[in-house]
Amino acid sequence: MLKYFIKRFVQMILTLWVIATVTFFMMKAIPGDPFSDERKLPAQVVANLRAHYHLDDPVPVQYLNYMANLLRFDFGPSIKYETRSINEMIAEGFPVSAQLGAQALVCAVVAGLLLGIVAALRHNRPVDYLAMVLAVLGISIPGFVLGPLLQKVLGVEWELLPVATWDGFSSTIMPTLALAALPLATITRLIRSSMVEVLTQDYIRTARAKGLPPFLVISRHTLRNAILPVVTILGPLAVGILTGSFVIENIFSIPGIGKYFVESINNRDYPLIMGITLFYSVLLVGVNFAVDLAYRWIDPRIGLGKREGN
Amino acid sequence: MAKVLHVEDLHVSFQVAGGEVQAVRGVTFTLNKRETLAIVGESGSGKSVTALSILGLIPSPPGRIKQGKIRFGERDLTRLPEKEWYRIRGSEIGMIFQDPMTSLNPTMTIGKQIMEGIRWHRRAGWCEAFQKAVEILKLVGIPHPEKRMKQYPHEFSGGMRQRVVIAIALACFPKILIADEPTTALDVTIQAQILDLMKEIQRQTGTSILMITHDLGVVAETADRVAVMYGGQIVEIGWVHEIFASPRHPYTRGLMGSIPCLDKAKDQALEPIPGSPPDLFLPPPGCLFADRCPYAMNVCYEEMPETTHVSGFHQVRCWLEDPEAPPVFPKILPEKS
Predict the structure, then answer these.
(1) Residue A98 CB neighbours (<10 A)
(2) Which CATH class is domain A86-298?
(3) Rounded CA gap, B134 and B144, in Å?
(4) ipTM of this predicted complex?
C-alpha cells in the first residue's frame, strides 16, 4: 500500500515536471513579450525591463532559474500586476473558483445521479423520456450559450437573479447551473444506462431470490455496481468543470482564477501563465489520484499496485 | 409422503410484439418432503419458467401466470401479493442459480451476501448472522470459512463460487431448494462434487429439491422422480428407475437415444431427435411433438393427448397410451422389456 502511494507520488511529480517544461517552452515560442504593447516604449526602457525580469538571459538559463524557484514553491512576481506575487493572486482568486467549481460538481453529481436512477427505474416510461430529453439538451448546449441565455431570461427579463456580480449565494446560482449542465447531463445518461444494465445481471436476480425488498436490492446491489462508470468519468468531468470555469467566470465577471488566466495569456505575463497552469495541473493530478483511490474502494476487483487477489 | 409443493395446471405466458408466447401450458406436479424431483427438457421447454414462477420471479411485464395454482402449505403462490413474497423467497424457498460466475455480486464480500438473507429473514444481529454464515460455509465444504467470509467473489474458483451460491440459497434452511442447472457451468469433476454436496445437504437438512436440468446424467445421479418437459408441458413423469428402464413417451425415448453410450458399437451413430423444438407462439392444437415423432398418428395433429396413468406414479401424455392405439414400442425396442 505504502509502496503504491510512493510510486504514484513520483509519477505525479514527473507529470508535473513534464507539464511545466512543455508549457515553459511553448510559452516562450509565442511571438511577442509582456512589453510589446501598443504604446511604443523607448528601446532602452524595454531593455532595462527585460534585464530586470531576466528575460534577456538565454532561454535554457531562464528555464533552469524558473525550475529552481519552483522547487522553493515560488512562482515569482507578476509582470502585469507588478506589486503582487503569483502566490497572492492564486490565494485570492482560488477560493472563488473553488466555490464555483465545487458547487457545480456537487450539483452535477447529485442531480445527475438522482435523475439517472429515476430514469432507469422507470425505464421506457414518460419520466425516463423526460430525463433523456433534458440530458440531450444539457450535452448539446455549450456553457457559453447557456450562460448568456440564463442571464437574459432569469436575470434581465424575470429579474429573479443578479446578472453578473459576485455577491452572496444568489449570484452563484446561474454560473453554477451553466457550469454544471454538461457534467450533469453526462452523469444522468451514464448512470441510467449502467443501472439498466446492472438490473438485468444475474446477481440482481440472486438478491431478489434472497427475498430482499426492492429498496435493498437497489441500494445494496445495484447502485454500487452501477456507479463505477460514473466514478471513472469523475476525473475528466472535474477537469471539464475547471476549464469550463475559465469561460463562465468571464461571462459572469467572477473574480476567480479563470479571469486572470485568460488575461495572462493575452498579456504574455509569463510567470502568471506558468503559475496558474501548474496550479491547475496539481489540482487535476490530485483529483485523478483521488478518483483512482475511490474506484479501488468501490470495486474490490481492482488491485492497488501489485497487491492482487489470488 | 408429505406434500411440500403442489403445482396444478400452471399456465405462464409472455407478452411479445404481436401476440403471446405460451411458455408453460398446463403443468401439474407435486414435490414431496425430502425428495428430489428433476425436471428435464431442452432449452425453451418451459422448465426454467416453471421454476421461476414458484419463486414469483417471472419478469412481469411481459410474463404473467395466466391460470393454475401453486400450493405451498396453506398458500396459493400465484395469488401472493409482492410484500408476502419477501417472507417466502430465500426463507422458505431458496434458489440455486446456473452460473456462479455471474450470480454473485462482485462488489460485496461473500460473507455479507450470505448474511444478508439471514439478517433480513431472521432479524438476526451482525454477530449471530456471522456465526450462522460461517456454519453454512462449513456445511457447503468451504475451508477456512472465517477468512473466506471477508473475501470477494473474484477470489474464489468456479466450484467454490457455486458452493457460495448454494450457501446463499441455504442460508435460512428453506423447505424447498430450486436448483436451476446448478452444474451446467462447471467442469465435469466439479459437477460430481456439487451434486454430492447437494445430496449431503438434503440428507442433513431434510429439504426438498427441485432440480432443473437438461442433463440426464444429473437426473440419474440425484433425482428420486423425474418429469420430462416438452413444449411447456410435462409429457412424462415417474420414478427415475421407471423412466430410465421403460420410457413410454417417444420424446423421452428420443432423449435416451441421444445419450452417448459406451456399450454401443463405435460405428453406431448417436440418434438425435429430428426437427426443432416447437413454436410456442402459435402452438398447434394437437401434440407438440407430433411433427418430430416417428409414430405420429392423425389424431396426434388434431387433439391434445390426455395424461394417462401407466402405473402408480408413472404418467404419460401421449396418444400411444390410448387403448385403441397400435402397440409400437415392444416391436422397436424388444430388448428393453
Answers:
(1) 15
(2) mainly alpha
(3) 9
(4) 0.82
Closest to B255 (Cα-Cα) out of B311, B213, B222: B213
**Bridge partners for A289 per DSSP:** none
**What residue of B is the nearest CA neighbor of A224?**
B107
DSSP for B103-149 reads: SS-TTS-HHHHHHHHHHHHH---HHHHHHHHHHHHHHTT-SSHHHHH
The sign of the torsion formed by the CA atoms of A221, A186, A262, A285 equals positive
Report residue A211 as a C-alpha cell.
Answer: 427475498
For A124-168, write each residue's pLDDT tens digit: 888 889 999 999 998 898 888 888 888 888 888 887 777 777 777
Amino acid symbol at A13: I
Q: How far apart are CA A175 and CA A254, in angstroms?
A: 9
Sequence length of chain A is 310
Least CB–CB distance from A205: residue in B97, B113, B155? B97
Residue B81 burial class via C-beta count within 10 angstroms: exposed 0-12, middle 13-18, buried 19 and up = exposed
Q: How far apart, in whole angstroms, are the C-alpha atoms of residue B148 and residue B137?
A: 9
Measure the CA–CA gap between A130 and A110, rounded to whole angstroms.
Answer: 18
| Cα A64 to Cα A86: distance, rounded to the nearest angstrom | 19
A133 by Cβ neighbours in 10 Å (0-12 / 13-18 / 19+) ranks as exposed
Indicate the pTM of the whole model: 0.76
Give the pLDDT confidence of A17-27 residue by residue, as tens digits.
Answer: 999 999 888 88
Pairing of strands B233-239, B314-317: antiparallel
Local structure of B210: helix, strand or coil: strand
Cβ B106–A203 below 8 Å, yes or no? Answer: yes
Chain B CB within 8 Å of residue A223 CB: no
Closest-CA distance of chain B to residue A60, Å: 52
Which residues in chain A have their CB less than 8 angstroms from residue B165's CB? 206
